Every structure is written in C-alpha cells, then in structure tokens.
Amino acid sequence: MTASKNIFVFACVFAFTLALFALSALAQPSKTPLANAERMNGYALGDYEAFWKRPDWHFVTVRYRRDSNEMRLTYANDIAWKALLAGGKEYPEGAVFGKVGLLTQDDPSFTSSAVPAGARRYQLMIRDKEKGKGTNGWAYALFDGRGKAAAEDQDIASQACWACHALVPERGEVFSQPIHMDISDTLPDPAVTPFAQAIPRVEFTTVKAETLPEKIRAKLPPKTETVRLVQGKLALNLFRGTIDEIRPTLARESLRAKMPAILMSVDGTLFSVVQVDDGKSCELTGGGKGVNVTAFYTTGTVPGKDSLIADHQYCEKK
C-alpha cells in the first residue's frame, strides 16, 4: 500500500472514530460538572462579594435548620427587597437573594444557646430569565465555605433547588419573608403570618413496601406493608441537599400516617426514609417532650450512583 493510501485510510478511521465519539456524547444525559469551579450557572460568589456587608443590600430573615444544626441568614439586594416589601409575588430581572449558612455550636458558658461557628456555605438566587429559563426564571448558584461551586452537577442541583422553591408559587417562589421587628403595642397575630397561610405542597401517596428497592425494604420495621412516598417535582429532581432538608417533612407525615415516609429518586439510588415512634416520648434539646425518629438515607450527591447508607436517630418536636 502506498504512503498516500495509508494516509487516506488513517484519515477515514480517524474521522469515523470522531463520529462515534460525537454520537456517544449526544446519547449521554446533559450534565454540567462543576468540580470546584469558581462559577455556577455563570455566577461566581465574587460577583456579589461580601453581600452581607454591603450597604445597598438588606437583611431579610434568619432560619435555623434542625436537620443540619445550621443557622441561615438571608439578604436581598435593593431590587429584590423592594419587590419583597410590595408583596413578593413578582420579582423583576436583577433581583438577587443571598444566603449565608453558618454552622452552630453550644456556647460553653451558656449551653442552652446555639451560636454561630463559621460559614459553611453560600447560596445565590438570581432573577435571570435567560440563565434560569429551565427553572422558571430563577438561576441558582451554590458555593462551599471556600467560595467554590458546591454542586457536583449544576443542572441537577438547579432543578432540585427549583423543585423546592416551586412549593411556594404564591410567594414568587421565595421562601424568605421579612422578620417582624417593628415596635408595637401588640405582637403580630401568628394566625395571619405568611407562614400560617402557607399551603403544604409536598405530595405523598401510599405504596406497598414490596414495590420498593431491596436496600430500602431491608431497613424498614418488620411487617411493614405500606409506606408514604413523596411524589412530584421533589422526587423527579433529587440531590444531596434535599435528602437532609426533607427529613422534618417526612417525620411529620410518618407521625400523621402511622407508617414510614420516604423520598426516593426515580431510579432508587438516592433516598431518605423516616419512621416515627410516638409510643414513647423523648426529651427535646431545648426542653419539652418529643417523638423518637429513626432515619436512614443515602450519602451520594446525585442520582445514578450507588452510595453508602447512613443511620440517624433523634428526638423531633411533635
């Protein structure tokens, strides 16, 4: 075979290999791995550097996550703040909410108090209809304590964020509401707060335990016949953060329905399972009686991969 023919054959084989590679790539699910990147959805934490200190941003509220012992402070830029004060149902382009997640620890001098112990994560929620076109006009960016992108896959994480925020469409998909701190003669009526009027939107259905994956069935109490299973967007868009955040909701449903409550990804590789035993009360950390909760959950970050299963027992408010 002549040199020219050799070159021709090599070129044909190379082109064919490239074509196969391209077809293989197209066949794979669309994913955007981050791997400690500086940006998520085109945004870096530095784009809103130290937003919690900026005079043109406003402190909105504080939340305490019982599942992770984390205190979360929420701030809004001026555009988001004005929309929030106007009723918080529609947010214009450029509205931004920033959140700082702080680890907490007991104050050694006053152990009944939980105090901040350092930043664990930062989160941004930006009204950007182009970058958030797949999540109803909100773009999400999650960062760890170093300011690096905290999600393994931005598409999965974004959809999971939106699945949660979509639970409150009457508030423009924004959970945070301004704290009532005005000086007044009477305290605000708890019956008329935005949270009292909120409609629980986590959907559950009853399924037979025998239809669940074996690794879940093996952990259920003996003779369990039925469970309550989460339906809808949360189950379709699941990632690591949701596994922890859903635990109190599962506990309430388990207590109400008197059976285990489960959030599980469609393929069964990620899940959170909670069983409440209200037959014997327990002591809450802050005082008072609670119910015993037994939980087990996967430690993986995204669906499609098998991961370790962790167990957790704690006392939950009844």
Would you kindly provide a written description of the structure presented here, covering whatever features stand out?
- This protein has a six-stranded mixed sheet. Strands 3-4-5-6-7 form a five-stranded antiparallel sheet. A two-stranded antiparallel ribbon has the order 1-2.
- The protein contains eight helices and 13 strands.
- It has helices at 3-27, 78-85, 154-165, 194-197, 214-217, 233-236, 240-245, 247-257, and strands spanning 39-40, 43-44, 57-65, 70-77, 96-107, 110-127, 138-144, 203-208, 226-231, 261-264, 271-283, 289-298, 309-317.
- The termini are far apart.
- With 318 residues, it is of the alpha+beta class.
- β3 (57-65) and β4 form a beta hairpin.
- It folds into two domains: 39-171, Cytochrome P460 (Chalcone isomerase), CATH 3.50.70.20; 202-317, no CATH class.
Structural key phrases:
318 residues; Chalcone isomerase; six-stranded mixed sheet; 23% helix; 33% strand; disordered N terminus
Summarize the structure.
With 318 residues, the chain is an alpha+beta fold. Helix content is 23%, strand content 33%.
What is the secondary structure topology, with strand pairs?
Blueprint: H1 3-27, E1 39-40, E2 43-44, E3 57-65, E4 70-77, H2 78-85, E5 96-107, E6 110-127, E7 138-144, H3 154-165, H4 194-197, E8 203-208, H5 214-217, E9 226-231, H6 233-236, H7 240-245, H8 247-257, E10 261-264, E11 271-283, E12 289-298, E13 309-317
Parallel strand pairs: 9-10
Antiparallel strand pairs: 1-2, 3-4, 4-5, 5-6, 6-7, 8-9, 10-11, 11-12, 12-13
